[in-house]
Amino acid sequence: MLIIFFGVSCVGKSTLMQALKSQCGWLSLPTYVTRPLRVGETEKISVSHTDFLEMEDKKVFICVNQIYGNKYGIPKREVEFAMQSKDHHWMLDFPISKKHLLNGCRYSGFIILPQNEEQLIEQARVAGRMDRLGTILEEYRKRYIEYYDRRPINDQCTPIINKPHSVYQTSQLIRSLVAGVPV
Fold first, then answer.
1. Which one of 6, 59, 146, 182 is at 20 to 30 Å from 114 when CA atoms are compared?
2. Number of domains forming the structure of the chain
3. What string of pLDDT tens digits covers the 183 residues of the chain?
């Protein structure tokens, strides 16, 4: 089963995915990146710009995204495998601006939202990403504010508010929704 997380930078997608991995044994699909890995980052694979461009030329990726001067590529083959998997839950961080590339794909999607803009600013501060705050807030206001009033959007995407210090509760909510358990 493929589970996709959409959300602006610093909203806590990676933290939720790590919690679901440790609590439930869910797995992460790799994303290839042209930047060094952050401490504790295990769901990404760092490659050189040259290697990334070669993979891009070979059409290895279902999606390529460029953020803060770095490229991120999501491999097609792994996404197709995860959609067919009946034994495992596979998680993926995916840009909402490229959601249309998933048309025809089977997945459960979650749009991770901060409780409010102040929380997002605080999470950016804690993550040491204040140099990107303007871009983060612009993306949040442009692509995510509209989802606060929608519950659920459709059969594939559900907005989830990720409150401060509630990773366990949020991950359990996601787990219940994926399992089809009423919450």
1. 182
2. 1
3. 999 999 999 999 989 999 999 999 999 999 999 999 988 788 889 999 999 999 999 999 999 999 888 999 999 999 999 999 988 999 999 989 999 898 888 899 999 999 999 999 999 999 899 999 999 999 999 999 988 876 655 557 899 999 878 899 999 999 999 988 554
CATH number (domain holding residue 9): 3.40.50.300
- Residues 41 and 38: their CA atoms lie apart, in Å, by 5
118 inside domain: yes
DSSP state at residue 37: P
pTM of the predicted protein model: 0.89
Domain annotation covers residue 41: no
| CA R_g for the chain | 16
Instruction: Tell me, yes or no, whether 153 lies in a domain.
Output: yes
